[in-house]
Amino acid sequence: MDTIEGIKTVIAVVETGSFTAASDRLAISKSLVSKYIGEVEERLGVRLFNRTTRQIALTEAGNNYYQHALDLLEQYNVMLENVVGEQAELKGLLRLSAPFSFGEQILAPVLSEFMQRFPKLKIDLRLSNKPVDMLEEGIDLRIRIGRIEDSNMIARQLQKIPLILVASPSYIEQYGLLDNPHNLEKHDAVIDSNFGLGKHWPLYHEKQGELLVNVNSKLTVNGSKAVTELSAAGAGIGLVPRNVVEADLKSGRLIHLLPDYKSLEFGLYLIYPHRKFLPKKLKCFIEFMQQKFDHY
């Protein structure tokens, strides 16, 4: 067993919490994971994990090894990058996580451009609106829209995304143009449950201040893309992230209602581990995203 492979295996077991999950991350068999851990423990003369039939627990020595192993692996990766040189093409696998609507409508086109720049780099994009355990799933970078919980991760904000009111031309033709926020309750609304607003939508006007408007709805979904499509089909008025409907606004498929009123704004964040040395592939992707979204 190579020493570096042993270090990677220990880190994977600690961060995933099991030999099975670690084997999935490393793409090796569970028996090989167990073998590598045993060889590391035998070489050190200490037990890194207490094992039972149902679970494993990190020992004090194991935790000490893990903390040092992280630093050592970072320095090792930096050494490889320095030896290979700045002109070498990026290789390896970059694991990303993003919300469904953002991933499908916004990230996919720019991700294609990134892969054209670095054709030897592989991308594993996982779309989910649920919380993601980056360490357990081996995610290099997570894209998140919304509030950021306290974390040991770095959260770098790319931009702010406002929510806006939209409806289709056919809906407006049938029910009339919304010209007053208090008339919202007279219309049908399509609610995105991800925002947690329910039937009370916050609006803000420079002169009138903050408003909390009641809406009526028979349609609730858990995705901005679904709200967009339902609104475009004439199902009602939607409150959606502007970046998701930008193309629909330009084409006239959707109409921006009450443009003088603002609603909530969510931050668009890149979240990645707090490391002294970032892998070159991750640094390049962060720089690429900053360039793309500075003027998005």
UniProtKB/TrEMBL annotation:
Residues of the signal peptide: none
Keyword S-adenosyl-L-methionine (UniProt): no
Keywords: DNA-binding, Transcription, Transcription regulation
Listed InterPro entries: LysR-type_TF_proteobact-type, LysR_HTH_N, LysR_subst-bd, WH-like_DNA-bd_sf, WH_DNA-bd_sf
Gene3D superfamilies in alphabetical order: 3.40.190.290, Winged helix-like DNA-binding domain superfamily/Winged helix DNA-binding domain
The HTH lysR-type domain, residue ranges: 1-59
Membership in a protein family: Belongs to the LysR transcriptional regulatory family.
Protein name: LysR family transcriptional regulator
